AAA family ATPase (Paenibacillus albus), 305 residues
Amino acid sequence: MPQEDIKPIDRSDYASMDEAARLKIIRDLRVYHPRFNRALEIMRLCHKSKTSGVGLQCAIIEGLPGVGKSELIKAYLKDYHEVTYSKDSTIRKILSAEISSPAKINSFVEDMLAKLGDYNPTSGTRGNKNTRLVELINDCGVELIILDEFQHFMNRHNQKVNYEVADCFKSIINRTNVPVVLFGIQDDAYTVIKSNSQLKDRFSIRFNLNPFGLEDNERVREFRMLLHRIDDELPFLERSNLADPAIFQRLYDATNGVMRPLMKLIGEAASNAIMASRDRIELEDFKQAMIMHNCLGTGKNPFAA
């Protein structure tokens, strides 16, 4: 890693910090990498499109389990999920929901109604519920709809798309003219989009939140830069040198470059080191972390060698 990529860190504050405070830093640790930030930019682009000159923009963000899709939604909601209450109305800028499995038209609409504060979301005919949902989206001033687990629009047993729910979803977009960002499992979620030509035209932005890889020098550099960023945030007197060749390859072998198991492994190892009063994470801490989380990532323990 070139020296210019390494920023000097003042770690002296950690010397006077107690164990509980340092462990809290580990628990709260969040590191946003360039592709994560790019996905946030896409969400902002869609959000602003309702009032922009380019017209309505909708996107689908895909990825394997654990790459950070749910964390991405949380990060965006933290910045923009503003709800304002008054005597006469509730203003909710973002409608965010998770699609249940298997997706059914009534449960889909009822979940959305409940999120918007409908007093009795299960009441009424299907048409009445749809109308109430459209009216609530408009009355609440919704500027962006975020739907997670979009692959549930497809039956995982027979791999058939539930066209009834998909058509209902398309109708809601058309009637409200509110931008939508979808999240789902890689390829499965986009299969639903491809099944409907109008949805495919709407969702012209497709972004894959890929795991990290070591296929070429650029991908290696990207992974090591991530590890440097994480190392910067760890509450130790010394750097743990996560991006060094002796460690980064093992971290990749243990997690396949998937963000969730990677952060869990580093977090467990860091906690071990803090409780052992060490000044940095040692290989033994990673070894014990992998023994504890023996189903993590690939299930291999490259730190045992």
Notes: The chain has two domains: 3-29+213-292, 34-202.
